[in-house]
């Protein structure tokens, strides 16, 4: 995942979701998706000096909005 | 915590998808409280299969007492030793909890920068967590929004492999009255997602 990219969407795809009735769900569930959790990555990169870089454990807590 | 959502630069249908995933995630991780039930009560479905599922869910929300739904959640999803359904990918794919599918998922979560929420005892391959992760990938809750190819990869690797069976089981679970339409909503939605992802594959191939 890189910088902000707007997902290119095709008219076919948009139409498909519309026909599938997805719009009906949209209004209600809107309040369910909260702003992204404080997405500041506490990146503690610890190179393990073995010519092998340990995966950064990016801590990011995600939580749906509480009702 | 109210305004941020619509500011995401994502297509309208993707916002709707994220909302359905978020709703499923919410309903599958804990019983709905009265506020959520009030919201669900206002749902109106259209003639589509998904719309019908939403309408049934709305009717159940209007009809049932929160306490009864909470009891049902316990019985269906949790149980004393186990619920009527076992909502974990590992169980569906291998017959055991905490097995390979969970390990694979954790690998992908690390790559995508998704951390397990602290204090949540369930392993991450819980259906509700997977729905939350899909919602997060779409909206960019974890990072910049994952593009469709990335979403599709995650969906194909961790969701479609078992979620259709899980939702069918939920829909058919003995005690499921409120959770029956939840199962139907999930089953229908995952089917729509599967077709929509196939659509982009087809378009790319063209």
Task: Characterize the structure shown.
With 67 residues, chain A is mainly alpha-helical. Chain A has two helices and no strands. Chain A has helices at residues 11-19, 22-29. The longest helix of chain A is centred in the N-terminal third of the chain and has 9 residues, at 11-19. Chain A starts with 10 loop residues before the first helix and ends in a 38-residue tail after the last helix. The model of chain A is unreliable at 1-5 and 34-67 (pLDDT under 50). With 206 residues, chain B is mostly helical. Chain B has one domain: TorD-like, CATH 1.10.3480. Chain B has helices spanning 12-29, 34-41, 49-63, 66-78, 89-94, 100-112, 127-139, 148-159, 163-172, 179-205. In chain B, helix 1 packs antiparallel against helix 7 (127-139) and helix 2 (34-41) crosses helix 3. Chain B is globular and about 45 Å long.
Helices and strands, with pairings:
The complex is a heterodimer of chains A (67) and B (206).
Chain A: H1 11-19, H2 22-29
Chain B: H1 12-29, H2 34-41, H3 49-63, H4 66-78, H5 89-94, H6 100-112, H7 127-139, H8 148-159, H9 163-172, H10 179-205
Helix pairs in contact in B: 1-7, 2-3, 3-10, 7-8, 8-10, 9-10
Keywords:
heterodimer; A: disordered N terminus; disordered C terminus; B: 206 residues; mainly alpha; TorD-like; 10 helices; 66% helix; disordered N terminus
Q: Give the rounded overall mean pLDDT of chain B.
A: 91
Rg from alpha-carbon coordinates of chain A: 19 Å
Q: Separation of termini of chain B? A: 42 Å
Question: Strand percentage of chain A, roughly?
Answer: under 5%
Measured by residues with Cβ under 8 Å of the partner chain's Cβ, the largest interface is:
A-B, 47 and 67 residues
- In the CATH hierarchy, the architecture of chain B is Orthogonal Bundle
- Percentage of helical residues of chain A? 25-40%
Number of strands of chain B: 0
Write down the domain tally of chain B.
1
Oligomer: heterodimer
CATH topology description of chain B: TorD-like
Specify the overall morphology of chain A.
elongated
Helix-strand topology string of chain B: HHHHHHHHHH
Low-pLDDT ranges of chain A = 1-5, 34-67
**What's the CATH H-level superfamily name of chain B?**
TorD-like
How many helices of chain B? The count is: 10
The major beta sheet of chain A can be summarized as: none
